[in-house]
Amino acid sequence: MPGGAVFSAPMVKAVSEDMGLTCKERALINYWFRHVWELAWPLYPGIILTVALADVPLLSFISCTWPGVLMMFFLGWFFFLRPLQVAMLNGKKAVSPHHGDLVLVVKEGMPLFIAIVGAVGLESLLPILIPGLSFEWGVLAALFLAVLSVMVQNHLGLKFVWRVLWKKNLWNMLLVIAAIFIFKDIMQAAGVVDAMATASGDGIALFAAAAFLPFLVGMVAGINVAFVGATFPLLLALLSTLGMRDQTIPYLVLASFFGFTGVMISPLHICFVLTCQFFGAETVRTWRRLVLPCVCLALFGCLLFWILSTLPAG
After folding, report:
1. Which of 65, 175, 184, 236 is the most exposed place for a label (fewest CB within 10 A)?
2. For the stretch 137-151, what's the b/e string if a residue is b when 16 or more beta carbons lie within 10 angstroms of its beta carbon?
């Protein structure tokens, strides 16, 4: 959801009302923790597009990127929450424990559970049960069942589905995805990748495709789908040209970390802009606090890439 940080901002504001936090501190906490799941959440468009372009199982990819989620939590605590602990403890009032209705939570969250568990499970099971069947069908089946669950719970009819199918934003997204795959095939057929590798040297071209270009596009565009669609076709084609298909996932992990770092550090990221506006935080001073944790995130991506690249293939 573009600009989704606006959804969590009012909750962050309400919870931190009596904690003595500045506008900048609130904005940083809301912005950072809004994105901690983005490197491994199976329903993010950037994740789905990555595994589709590379033709690798969803589970195989997120099983390598999940440490990034833990690192995001750690960096958020270390740089943003840890310095505020004293103020939070002094300002926080005692709150009576609230015992929610677990059955209601499960019922309302059923579409989400079906989509996530089904997507991860079916994309692994279907190719085993039906050899030759593409893993994408498992994700599609899970999402279809999740949509049915939403419709049944909310008593929605076919008219509602028809209105959704004709929304302009939906078709714009489909056209973007189609254009990305066309771009990938044309670039390979035209020999662009071979020419770049020959002109710049194999190592330089591969480094640029895996680190520099995803970071640059992510920083300029401020959205994951942009750096995946613009740079991953080149990276995958280079790996194929250089005979390094067995290193596809390590390089995809490296590119994802650098691209996501570019997105997080981008002053054009719509979540960052809207969060600063909501809390009335000064953009430049707030942005400066993001530089060091983003650098640490990119370095962690390099470490994870080195570990993955030294493991035996397969």
Report:
1. 175
2. ebbeebbeebbebee
Give me the residue spans of the domains in the chain: 5-91+167-310, 100-165
Give the C-alpha separation, 269 to 290, whole Å.
Answer: 12
Residue for token digits 């770092």?
261
Phi, psi of 20, deg, nearest 5:
70, 25
Q: Which residues have CB under 8 Å from 136's CB, separation 6+?
A: 52, 123
H helical segments located in the chain: 5-15, 23-34, 45-54, 58-65, 67-76, 85-91, 102-108, 110-129, 136-153, 158-165, 168-189, 192-200, 202-207, 213-221, 224-241, 248-265, 270-279, 283-310
100: three-class secondary structure by DSSP: coil
Token pair of 56, please? 């690798």
- pTM beyond 0.85: no
Q: What is the pLDDT of residues 185-220, one digit of tens each?
A: 676 677 665 665 555 556 677 887 889 989 988 888
